[in-house]
């Protein structure tokens, strides 16, 4: 897959300390392409480990641009409050008045109250013992499973996914993302990183 994004959306607000990669926008576009014929306005969507909201907002952008509508609810779950001001700015820049977008500042190990038809997730790629940590906790949380584990992430998806729902997770180590409750398959790779699909 090219490293150049052929489906530009808009200029995101991001913190200076950590920039999202093209993985996020490529993932959003590919999931849109996979689901295009089945997307419904009534869907409730969760962007899990959302950061500033890149994956979820890009998905909504493509829905509005190519289908003429976007799902009415999209929640964004993120533990780091440093992203809040950028999330608010990105909601404004996206300009989808018909979609209710909420930032849930919490750990994904805390159960969500809703059930979601679609979950999108570009989580940290590494366990804490898989690499060299930075002195910067913010960067570590972006790259490593610091606050909770990959296993807890799968449990969060199992809890939050609605009947007949689907979740897409971009992950470097698919063996960490095992579920006894959900059907799991590797859809393809996004710039060399496996894209997993979980289904009820």
- Uncertain runs with pLDDT below 50, 5 residues or more? none
The percent range for helix content is 25-40%
Give the overall form.
Answer: globular
Mean pLDDT: 87
Write the CATH architecture name: 3-Layer(aba) Sandwich
Question: What is the β-strand count?
Answer: 7
Helix count from the secondary structure assignment:
5
Largest sheet: 7 strands, mixed
Class from secondary-structure proportions: alpha/beta
End-to-end separation? 29 Å
Give the neighbour order of strands across the main sheet.
3-2-1-4-5-7-6
CATH topology: Rossmann fold
- The total number of structural domains is 1
Fourth-level CATH superfamily: Vaccinia Virus protein VP39
**From N to C, what is the helix and strand string?**
HEHEHEEHHEEE
| Proportion of residues in extended strands | 15-25%
Cα radius of gyration in angstroms: 16 Å
* CATH class bucket: Alpha Beta
Describe this structure in words.
The protein has 200 residues and is of the alpha/beta class. The chain contains five helices and seven strands. The longest helix has 14 residues. The radius of gyration is 16 Å and the shape is globular.
Name a few traits of the molecule.
Rossmann fold, alpha/beta, seven-stranded mixed sheet, single chain, 200 residues, 7 strands, globular
């Amino acid at each position: 897959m090219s490293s150049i994004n052929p489906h530009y959306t808009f200029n995101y607000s991001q913190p200076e300390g950590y920039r999202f990669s093209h993985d996020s926008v490529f993932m959003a576009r590919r999931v849109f392409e996979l689901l295009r014929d089945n997307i419904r306005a009534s869907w409730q969507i969760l962007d899990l480990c959302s950061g500033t909201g890149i994956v979820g907002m890009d998905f909504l952008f493509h829905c509005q641009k190519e289908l003429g509508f976007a799902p009415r609810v999209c929640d964004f779950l993120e533990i780091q409050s440093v992203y809040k001001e950028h999330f608010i700015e990105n909601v404004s820049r996206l300009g989808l008045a018909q979609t209710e977008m909420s930032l849930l500042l919490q750990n994904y190990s805390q159960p969500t109250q809703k059930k979601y038809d679609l979950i999108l997730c570009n989580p940290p790629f590494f366990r804490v013992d898989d690499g060299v940590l930075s002195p910067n906790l913010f960067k570590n949380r972006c790259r490593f499973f610091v606050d909770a584990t990959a296993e807890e992430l799968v449990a969060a998806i199992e809890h939050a996914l609605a009947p007949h729902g689907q979740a897409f997770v971009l992950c470097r180590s698919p063996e960490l993302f095992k579920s006894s409750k959900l059907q799991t398959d590797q859809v393809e790779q996004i710039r060399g990183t496996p894209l997993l699909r979980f289904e009820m």
